[in-house]
Fold this sequence. Notes:
4-stranded antiparallel sheet; binds zinc ion; Alpha-Beta Plaits
Amino acid sequence: MKALHLFHQRLEEKGVSGRIMSDFDYETLLNRARDNIPEDISSRARWRLPEPQIMIEGSNTILRNFTEVVAMMDRDDNHVYQYILNELGTSGSRDGPRARFKGRIPPKRLKKAIVGYVNTYIKCIQCGAPDTHFMKEDRTTLLKCQACGATRPVKL
Length: 156
Ligand SMILES: [Zn+2]
């Protein structure tokens, strides 16, 4: 619970907790998971990432607020960046708070890659909560949920 509290505090400090996102709404993504669980757990699953600011610059696609988005994820920024590059099948570079991707990438595709990271490395598949962390067990890395205690193996 303490970690969860800190998580929400972080949301408030960043002033983005109430922001609504159209096609980037984690609420929607988490709905199915939440249908099967008690309300007190499900209410914890409500969180949102900042709306990605995506723009095309020449033959590149820029995610202007990459570091802001990743800060909310509480994950290693390079891990997130490499995952997105893989999903998009392109290369790119980091530039301060911005991330650059080669090619003109439709914003929906880029957002889908970000959501893909959340589903793969952050969201608990048992209760849908985002309050998870990695832990090592022997040679396996597990994603452990702070809200319900569930674990599942992840490939880093
Ligand atoms: Zn859980």
